[in-house]
């Protein structure tokens, strides 16, 4: 039992051979994949993939890079789209101050709107954060005071202190192939200490292919390599880590429970 909790099956590099990508994932032991949206124009295709493939699920959301391009995104639109039976999450959303491809105020506004949608629908929120730890943690804490919600910090690369803040709010943390990189010593130290009951694994495919696939187009099959590395790092067996992270996936994304 192995789950890729975050991938982009409809992105260039994967969509052209999506059937073969899915076959390779299944042959590697992957039993479920969460296909993530980042722009409104993707929603229909991403949901259609989930409708067609029983082991693929969908999210609905706007990436912080796309906040300027979606000034009219509103709460009701997110809630309406999330009613689909194959949609199990809101996002990805969050803050990205590294690239600053969208105005920061608009990113923050979009982030809060997504959190409101998560609260209203009861679906978990998928959070992207880069070079924005303080604002991300602050907004999440403020919004939690307005009403409970749950979610995951995807592709975690932040500080150990931020990890504790997210965990204190009840959020999960997802580890990508970055943890296998030689220069990811701080991340490896943090990942080794994360509580088992809050841990997920992902690829963020087609990005961030783990060792030994660096330089290649990432794909869901590679989550097995990340899981093997992470299990060794944490002193666990591969089978136990796969089982635990899969159970956590279905706990968080309960709408996807088989």
TrEMBL record:
A divalent metal cation 1 binds at residues 6, 8, 92, 204. Keywords: Hydrolase, Metal-binding. Pfam families: TatD_DNase (PF01026). Transmembrane segments: none annotated. PROSITE patterns: TATD_1, TATD_2, TATD_3. This is TatD family hydrolase. A divalent metal cation 2 binds at residues 128, 154. CDD domains: TatD_DNAse. Belongs to the metallo-dependent hydrolases superfamily. TatD-type hydrolase family. Gene3D superfamilies: Metal-dependent hydrolases. GO terms for cellular component: cytosol. GO terms for molecular function: DNA nuclease activity; hydrolase activity, acting on ester bonds; metal ion binding. SUPFAM superfamilies: Metallo-dependent hydrolases. It comes from the Bacteria.
